[in-house]
Amino acid sequence: MESLWKLAYLLEPASLALIATAISVAYASASRALDYGKEMERNLDFSEASITLDRSQALMIPLASSCSLLLMFYLFSSVSHLVTAFTTVASAMALFFCLSPYVTYLKTQFNLMDPFVSRCCSKSFTRLQGLLMLSITTVLAWLVSGHWLLNNVLGISICIAFVSHVRLPNIKICALLLACLFVYDIFWVFFSERFFGANVMVSVATQKASNPVHTVANKLSLPGLQLITKKLELPVKLVFPRNLLGGIVPGSSPGDYMMLGLGDMI
Description:
This protein has 266 residues and is mainly alpha-helical. It has helices spanning 2-6, 13-43, 46-49, 55-109, 127-145, 148-165, 171-196, 200-206, 212-220, 262-265, and strands at 51-52, 116-117, 124-125, 166-167, 209-210, 231-232, 237-241, 257-261. Helix 2 runs parallel beside helix 6 (148-165).
């Protein structure tokens, strides 16, 4: 009975929001992947715009992920700026990829023409260029504020873009990949502490990266430094504060977060 009572945390607002988001992202990723596949087939460039995994590549994914995990475990502080820079570029591209179909839909639905002229600066640019500016602005806002909601938006975008661009040609490759990832998860979560002295997966997942924007602003003594967050939760996981609706959940602190890795949804 006591063990069942411990599962009551699943009824917390943060837990319910995380579960609902994970289910929604899984559905949105599959839907976007199907639409993207049809679009690429119509344009006859499907093979160039996506990656189709074979058996050797399916086996290499857990091995490459394990090497990356160990690199982050031992050298995270040294490579955090590089990882943040790479994640920033990937997040902007993924967000643009996820939002571009809606721009196309609105243009078709309302018979909008491109390019259009901005009234503020009399410059002509397409709506896709405007969407690119929006994506970059969103990423910059995340870099400055480090807000968990922006982190989740970028993480969801990366998840959808990854599922859309990586193809599994048959059920055998799919089963092989899932089996390898299952072993990968079990080892790094439950057995890595025996070999490396700490839970590698949890240690990497809970580390925050140094914010290169704060570092540069601090070096140049720029104004507004106090408004820029020093540490960032990278959008490789979804995070929800335990006090999502206000108040403190028993046994937690205001800074506690629930998290779910993007790999678990993919």
